[in-house]
Amino acid sequence: MMKRTFIAVDVVASEKVKELYELVRYRMRLEKVNWVADSNLHITIHFLGETEEELLPAIAQSIESAIIGQTAFKLLLRSFGVFKSIHDPRVVWIGCDPCPPLQKIKKELDNNLSHLGFKPEYREFSPHLTLGRIKEIRQINQLAQLVATYKDVLFQEELIKSIVLYESKLTSAGSEYTPLRNFLFL
């Protein structure tokens, strides 16, 4: 049996993150955007996709190996931006300051998972909280103004104590995430 899975860091949205999220949703209310529920905010470390259930124990072992000796670390959520480009935005997000522990975990995970047949991602790892996926936008100037206003704002400092292996189910109401296992740091 197959499960759609990914590995992520959970983030409990601060008031500042929630305020930006609501502001962006309000300003973009006439656009076609699939918004991520604020209760589902996370930083994806590795999207595995359709995964054979028999592989889950080996994936868990790969995760455990990647976090050996890892202690809790601080993550700074800073800046608001878009992926692809401001002229052709596809994703609106809150970014992270460079975080060596997270980069190390990502590198170790990519290496470990490649032995199970999962390809490392071709893009540079850019940790972020996805707020929404843009399907169609007409008022790019409105979005560009928000990006310019919030591009260097510190929204939250989060203490990261674990990573999570999730199952993702696509529904008509949006994605539903079920934690399969939580991997605590030292």
Mind explaining what this structure looks like?
- By secondary structure, the chain is an alpha+beta fold.
- Helix content is 27%, strand content 45%.
- The chain has helices at 15-27, 56-66, 100-114, 140-150, and strands spanning 2-10, 32-35, 42-52, 73-85, 88-96, 128-136, 154-160, 162-171, 174-184.
- Strands 2-6-5-4-7 form a 5-stranded antiparallel beta sheet. A 4-stranded antiparallel beta sheet has the order 3-1-8-9.
- The chain is globular.
Offer a quick outline of the entry:
The protein is α+β, with helices and mostly antiparallel strands. Helices cover 27% and strands 45% of the residues.
Mean pLDDT, all residues: 94
Radius of gyration: 17 Å
Helical content band: 25-40%
Number of helices: 4
Arrangement of strands in the largest sheet: 2-6-5-4-7
Strand content: 35-45%
- What structural class do you assign from the helix and strand content? alpha+beta
Largest sheet: 5 strands, antiparallel
User: What string gives the helices and strands in order?
Assistant: EHEEHEEHEHEEE
**Span of the ends, CA to CA:** 33 Å
The rough form would be described as globular
Total strands: 9
Unreliable residue stretches? none
Topology diagram in text:
Blueprint: E1 2-10, H1 15-27, E2 32-35, E3 42-52, H2 56-66, E4 73-85, E5 88-96, H3 100-114, E6 128-136, H4 140-150, E7 154-160, E8 162-171, E9 174-184
Antiparallel strand pairs: 1-3, 1-8, 2-6, 4-5, 4-7, 5-6, 8-9
Helix pairs in contact: 2-3
For the structure shown, list the relevant keywords.
single chain; 186 residues; alpha+beta; 5-stranded antiparallel β-sheet; 4-stranded antiparallel β-sheet; 9 strands; 27% helix
